[in-house]
Amino acid sequence: MDLRHLRYFLAVAEEGHFGRAAQRLHIVQSALSMQIRALEEELGGPLFLRTSRRVELTEAGRLLLGEAERTLAQAEHAQRTVQRAIRGEMGTVRIGFAGNAVFSGRLMRDVRAFNAAYPEAEVVLRELAPYHQVEAIQAGQLDVGYAPSHGGQISDSALCFESIGEWPLLVAMPDTHPLASTDPLRVSMLGAEALIVYAAHGADEFMLGGLRRALGREPKVHRTSSTLSVLALVAAGMGVALVPEPLMQVRIPGVVYRHLDDLQQPADLLLVSRNGEGGGAVRAFLGIARQALAD
């Protein structure tokens, strides 16, 4: 027994006539009669009482009628559910992000647009260091990442890396600092200042390399593990920090932001995903994110 047999049976039962059922199904009457006989032989007994004027269900046929209706309805539901998942209308997108993805507005823009287009799909967000994002995507624990490249240190031939944007680095410093009223600054003005950096899997090395070249010396460094703790240490007077320009939106008491006019080393953000992604919801999310980049 297959779904086609059930559809043929249901058409005859509803029409009460082989000829009308055949027209409804767009097949010839002889083919329909043959399929119904095959179904009856498979089940071991008649499903219809055939008269010269109409066709009526036997007791077995009446039992099959309810089962056929439920089975076909469930099959149609399964088909619609799978098709919606393939189109991205259902499913889950697991997204990792670094701080600048939020402060730049890129992540929120993409998630908002995706939620508007696919309200029944689920989005799960996790803040992770860039290298942890890559590892999680490789392991199938995340689907998409928003991470800085740190000078090209992040790479994997199985993954796709697309540039989302670049921003200049600013100096975050205590508002009591002697240079707090100076804007822009030059790297040489930082002198012997301690530098507070976000450090995770060598993420600070790219920034420190640029500073070593600009300063001509090894900077004194305080390392910490989150963007918020970087700004907290700055506010506490522990040193200054180089941060992406979008962080100017973060108003921390005791912290001011000043431009640098001689450090040509931008902060960037990448969209990270798997090559040949198979998930419908993930493909739909990536399509929206990529369209936003093209606009």
TrEMBL record:
InterPro entries: LysR_HTH_N, LysR_subst-bd, WH-like_DNA-bd_sf, WH_DNA-bd_sf. The keyword Transcription applies. Keywords: DNA-binding, Transcription, Transcription regulation. Pfam families: HTH_1 (PF00126), LysR_substrate (PF03466). Residues 1-58 form the HTH lysR-type domain. GO terms for cellular component: protein-DNA complex. GO terms for molecular function: DNA binding; DNA-binding transcription factor activity. It comes from the Bacteria. Belongs to the LysR transcriptional regulatory family. This is LysR family transcriptional regulator. It comes from Pseudomonas denitrificans.
